[in-house]
Amino acid sequence: MPKLTKRLVDSMPPEPKERIHWDDDLKGFGVRVYPTGRKVYVVQFRANGRTRRKNLGQHEVLTTEEARRDAKLVQADVARGADPSADRKARLRSPTVAELGERFLTDYAALHCKPQTQYDYRHLVEKVINPILGQIKVTEINFEDVTHFHLKRKDTPYQANRGLSVLSKMMNLAEDWGLRDKGTNPTKRIKKYHEVEKKRYLSEDEQERLGNSLGDLLQSGHISQHVFAAFYLLLLTGCRLGEIQKLKWDYVTQTHLELPDSKTGRRRIPLPREARMLLDNLERREGNPHVILGVHPDGYHQSLQKNWRKIRKHAGLPDVRIHDLRHTYASVAVMNGIDPFMLKEILGHKNLSTTLRYAHLSDDAVQKAAGRIAGKLFKTLERI
Fold it and tell me: Is residue 76 classed exposed, middle or buried when 0-12, 13-18 and 19+ CB atoms within 10 A define those classes?
């Protein structure tokens, strides 16, 4: 067969069986003619000891010279050790980002993460990552795709940043699982958005309003004794919501709450006298091990967030979150001279920097401290 040209390929008639016509000028380059008359350019090469073929494109969609140029590029890649046919098969077998996310949740998060973390990861995968990136192949996702994803979420910077972090974990695991080449994580070098830290705690006046609201709502029957106790315990112990909401009587001693597992592992939380009195007055339910009971005979109270919205509205505290009660505990502790290292142990933090982020001092306390410093300096200056 002489050198393939457009005229020559146009003149090739279909035969009962498909046939490849090879080019004499470029070894391995040819055109496959099907019985239907369809003609497709191919390139043949040897990779990993096997002869392989790769389709380059259909005649007339691709010119003969364009196909010849592409054939040379494939052969050059093969000479450098690549296997274009295997690469294409790998791309076809590659899972989508959504499929990788599901494997991440079942094969990684379910084995190594606490239930709340698993819940958070699933929300980020299904509600934040998948709507934008879910249908892209894991082998195909690139820096531009991730940049687009992060930009689309710019109006919710916290979600954008958490989604980026989870996506980065997924891509690292994709490399470990052989689904991507090593060192190709496309989330690298993407700058996270600035997040404004929420510094909210209750002033003494707000604490009093909250206490009055809890008492009023309990007396009027709008909240139960267990809901009342839950929010008092959060304030009196500095615990996280889940630690009180899921608390069991087996964990309660005369002086401590002995939690076998928490966000930071096993915890031993001091139980103040006032908190102990609250617990002593709580109704128990036979066969139910939980302290904070709900309407169902089994399990714990499931709707504390709903109750909190009712409580904070009654107290005139619309911007206060449940977690801000923990902030309040830390702030009161610091303002009353509790050593940060001791507070770190009480709150169950792994490092001191986390404790110091929680321990926000009130403006009044800062103003008074600044006034004392300035007054002392002024008196010294007057004597000079």
Answer: exposed
Domain ranges of the chain: 6-91, 97-176, 204-322
Q: Are strands 29-33 and 256-259 parallel, antiparallel or unpaired?
A: unpaired
pLDDT value at residue 6: 93
Non-local (6+) Cβ contacts of 204 within 8 A are none
Of the CA atoms within 13 Å of residue 98, those in its CB half-sphere come to: 9
- Closest Cα partner for 198 from 292, 289, 328? 328
Report CA-CA distances (Å) from 351 to 112, 137, 231, 345: 21, 39, 26, 9
The pair of structure tokens assigned to 303 is 């709707």
Residue 22, pLDDT above cutoff 80: yes
Q: Which two tokens stand for residue 4?
A: 């393939």
CATH topology of domain 97-176: DNA polymerase; domain 1 (1.10.150)
111 exposure class (CB count in 10 Å sphere: 0-12, 13-18, 19+): exposed
pLDDT tens track for 32-84: 999 999 999 999 988 777 788 888 999 988 999 999 999 999 888 888 777 66
CATH topology of domain 6-91: Double Stranded RNA Binding Domain (3.30.160)
For the residues 1-17, what does the mean pLDDT come to?
90
